[in-house]
Amino acid sequence: MTIQAHPTKASCFEGYKVIDVDTHLSEPHDMWISRAPAKFKDRVPQVKVMNGEKAWVIDGDKLIGKGACPNSAILKDGTKPPGFAFLQYQMEEVHLGASQVKERLEFMNDYGISAQIIYPNLLGFGGQRAANVDPELRLLSMQLYNDAMAQMQKESGNRLFPMALLPWWDIQGSVKEAIRCADMGLRGININPDPHTKTDNQGNLLPALGSTAWDPLWEVCTDRGLPVNFHIGGSEQSIDWFGDQAWPSFDMEHKGLLGGAMLFFGNARVMANLILSGVCDRHPKLKFVSVESGIGWVPFLLEALDHQYYEILTKPSLQRRPSEYFATNFYACFWFERRNLSQVIRDVGVDNVLFETDYPHPTCLYPVDGVSAAMGDLGPENIQKVLSGNAEKLYNIKA
Predict the structure, then answer these.
(1) Where are the alpha helices (DSSP H) in the chain?
(2) Percent of all residues in the chain with a pLDDT value above 90, rounded to a whole number
(3) Digit-coded pLDDT (tens) for 263-304
(4) By CB neighbour count within 10 A (0-12 exposed, 13-18 middle, 19+ buried), where does 243 fall?
(5) This prediction's pTM
(6) Nearest to residue 2, comparing CAs of 93, 82, 94, 88?
């Protein structure tokens, strides 16, 4: 079975303005080497032939990713084959919009999408794959990526908005890079949710993001209006495509199916930790985004946290009930959910829901169905908030 090319924009969004808050870049093969200083050209991320096959490597020979897979499931002819066929694709086989600005904008125009938020593939959804090389190369790889993203944003006429990767193994370095990226015009940061599982440049275990040690970064994000984005699978701890989630008796496709679904709940863990850490009491204007994780689990999680908070704690640790922080500090994104969608959005909070497609990944919303019709009883004003208005405010995107 092959899913056919996308429909016209009129049948997708019924004239509503749309900002797609989760899409991905298939990084061009020359993205790092074209920007690297001479002494690092052989060490930055690049495609080489390893054991007779093309593969992405860093530091000369360390594999990062599956071969030279562009992680795009949409082919040049606009079709999307199912399953894991995408792992065998090469860059020349997939839709040019996965990697090129001009073709990405044409794709958006076909759909009627005004702007997109962009996340990486190669270095991991939270930049975690850069962890296994020396600090200097790690930092340079992040900085070159961010430089390329600032150029992409400018080239797109401020329609593509990549989120900055941070050197999360170095708190002060993260602060400096967040400031540098804000100065370049980037509108948010993307960070590993579990730095406490790794060590800093001196070999000391890093503090969790709720620690006051991270307050300087949260102050910069608040002052510069940078949302803090947590994409599913953004750390080694939170990504498990084919490992422990599924029973060993399952075949590869069933393992991938279950692993992919369970990644959504990994972000529930991240959001719950952030709420209970007290970071929102210290930084009441800080904004967190749970990316590519859906919205249906949010009401249950908040109710469960409230219940456990008063059943388990003998002394309150927060200024408010846990559930109250979501409305003021958190956002969540949906794409495939349709069952009772309008009511779920109300339960989460109309002002706290964002729309995404996950283009061009295997489970992306492609072709786009009647998403606006599925929210019909929300009313035009609230539908517009969900499809673009909330994102405009959050990411400071001008109409």
Answers:
(1) 9-13, 101-111, 135-155, 171-183, 215-224, 252-277, 279-282, 298-312, 324-329, 341-348, 371-374, 380-384, 390-395
(2) 72
(3) 888 899 999 999 999 999 999 999 999 999 999 999 999 999
(4) exposed
(5) 0.94
(6) 82
Give the span between the Cα atoms of 183 and 220, in whole angstroms.
Answer: 12
Q: Is 305 helix (H, G, I), strand (E, B) or coil?
A: helix
Domain, as residue range, for 130: 9-29+95-395
CA 371/CA 387 separation, integer angstroms: 9
Non-local CB neighbours of 352 within 8 Å, separated by 6+ positions: 326, 327, 330, 331, 332, 390
Residue 106 maps to a domain: yes
| Amino acid letter, residue 285 | K
Is residue 265 domain-resident? yes
The dihedral built from the CA positions of residue 333, 338, 344 and 346, taken in this order, carries a sign that is: positive
Give the Cα separation of 349 and 324 in Å (integer).
11
In a domain, 46, yes or no: no
pLDDT digits (tens, 9 = 90+) for 90-129: 999 999 999 999 999 999 999 899 999 999 998 877 677 7
DSSP character string of 27-54 = --TTTTTTTS-GGGTTTSSEEEEETTEE
Q: What is the count of structural domains for the chain?
A: 1
Helix axis angle, 135-155 relative to 171-183, nearest 10°?
20
Handedness of CA 63, 66, 67, 70 (dihedral sign): negative
CATH of the domain at 230: 3.20.20.140
Q: Shortest CA distance to 355 belongs to which of 388, 393, 326?
A: 388
List Cα–Cα distances, 369 to 43, 113, 282, 357, in angstroms: 43, 14, 41, 11
**81 assigned to some structural domain:** no
